[in-house]
Amino acid sequence: MKLTSYGAAEEVTGSCHLIEVAGQRVLLECGLIQGQREEEARNQEPFPFPPESIDAVVLSHAHIDHSGRIPLLIKSGYEGPVYTQKASVDLCQIMLKDAGYINEKDAEWENRKRERKGLPPVTPLYTADDGEQAISQFEGVDYDQKQAILPGVSIRFRDAGHILGAAIVELWLTENDETRKLVFSGDLGHNGRPILRDPVRIKDADIVLMESTYGDRLHRDWQETYDELAEVFSQASASKGNVLIPAFAVGRAQALLYLFARFREEWGLDRWQIFLDSPMAIEATEVHFRYSELYRPEAMQFWQVGSHEDVSDMVYFSRTSSESMRINKIRSGAIIVAGSGMCTGGRIRHHLKHNIWREDCHVIIVGYQDYGTLGRALVDGAKEITLWGETIRVAAKIHTIGGLSAHADQHELIDWYRAFNGSPPLYLVHGEPDAQNALKEKIRADLGVDANILHRAEPIDILAVV
Q: How would you classify the pairing of strands 167-175 and 178-184?
């Protein structure tokens, strides 16, 4: 009975954990590596196991750093099922197709350069069709439903509160009449989020695999975050410019729409034209409308008494390129929510080109910005940016709102682990080394538990550590 991590070990992206039990292989996550070009090039490397040797894939949620290599796994020979929560199936249908489309465009761009140099062309990691076809192997499972997926292997998904459909995964593993329960946190949500419930607390486990993304920081109080947003909109209203909000298409964009409807009068949003300028975010929003039963009670009630209509009334869904280009003619009074969340691509870059040199423009950063991204450069105070070879002055006011995170902070991670009986062996994944070491030391200080940091390709004998 063995656990080996091949991704998101001492790093944040590319989640991929292999469980071997009774001669069977279960792959827990199969995500894309994201970041700098050198890091993303690792996605092209062969899998460190034969894809056809995998018996089942279990997926905690739809984010690409957890799901994004599944079409490649299938393309490389995997023929079995992918088990995930039902809402995650619908979101993956959108996100994997989009990821394939981006792969095709990246390959097309690269091949133009290679052709001029007389180099052979490259092929995309996988295509939009590959992403779309992969969904035929997905099997949706409700929260809290225990299900056998292989002889001696059962799973149950519990609400992780991170994005719609995100799950904590409970796995019961049996080998030679010995059973062990492994609990994988997936990505745990930040308590008190605007729409989703708090992560479920679990009492029993023999071994725990826990994310550590924000293991070295604490989030701002929610009311402080709402007050901060109100102040930004007040400043923007006084300066009479536009507001740009780079937002992740799944999760962050929907949270913003909910907050816009909830604080419509308090934030003076009736004075603004609000645009959701992201086809993928629009599709993801429509999925959110279908799963309101997964919301926290007050959000469910709010949605049922008219927020659907409120959002439709106050937000213009900009689907086509021509609709997006028309927004660029607006000089004042527009709030533009667009992808990508780190300004690495998508329509937000066009809006930055048309607005960021204006002193009356405000840019609100509402999510984590990785090193090397345009979003991070703005957060770090860049005076100029380059878009499509053109250098553009940054005159806009840049506001960083840190309290909207979809990840649990250090205190919440420790509190979630504290709920387990008997302090089961704990292994940290999905975190940068600084965050993991800070969390490890804090867990030792608060709980007297020595957490382990899972290293890439270093197998763990589950029976031996329990």
A: antiparallel
Count of beta carbons in the 10 Å neighbourhood of residue 119: 11
Q: Under 8 Å CB-to-CB from 104, ≥6 apart: which residues?
A: 124, 127, 128
For the record, the structure tokens of 464 come out as 């031996």
Helix (H, G, I), strand (E, B) or coil at 55: coil
Q: Are residue 243 and residue 203 in the same domain, yes or no?
A: no
Question: Do 155 and 239 share a structural domain?
Answer: no
Alpha-carbon distance 42 to 34, whole Å? 9
For residues 39 and 152, state if they share a domain.
yes
Q: Give the C-alpha distances (Å, rounded to integers) separating 67 from 29, 52, 88, 365.
A: 6, 18, 10, 25
Give the end of a domain, one of 376, 404, 432.
Answer: 404
User: How far is it, in rounded angstroms, from Cα 375 to Cα 391?
Assistant: 16
Per-residue pLDDT tens digits for 189-213: 999 998 999 999 999 999 999 999 9
427-438 b/e with 16+ CB inside 10 Å = b? bbbbbbeebbbb
* Average predicted confidence (pLDDT) for the chain: 94
Domain boundary among 385, 404, 423: 404
* Together in a domain, 188 and 234: no
How many Å apart are CA 449 and CA 399, to the nearest integer? 38
CB of 139 closer than 8 Å to CB of 83: yes
CATH of the domain at 41: 3.60.15.10
The span from the CA of 464 to the CA of 141, in Å, is 31
Q: Are 3 and 21 in contact (CB under 8 A)?
A: no
If one counts the domains in the chain, the total is: 2
Write out the residue range of the structural domain in which residue 121 sits: 2-217+407-465
Look up residue 401 and give its two tokens.
């709102």
pTM, 2 dp: 0.94
CA-based torsion, 308, 293, 213, 55: positive or negative: negative
Are both 63 and 175 inside the same structural domain? yes
Token pair in block for residue 42: 């690792």
Check residue 419 and give left, alpha or beta (phi > 0: left; psi -120 to 50: alpha).
alpha
**CA-based end-to-end distance of the chain:** 11
pLDDT category at 298 given cuts 50, 70, 90 is: confident
DSSP letter at 436? H
Q: Give the C-alpha separation, 239 to 69, whole Å.
A: 45
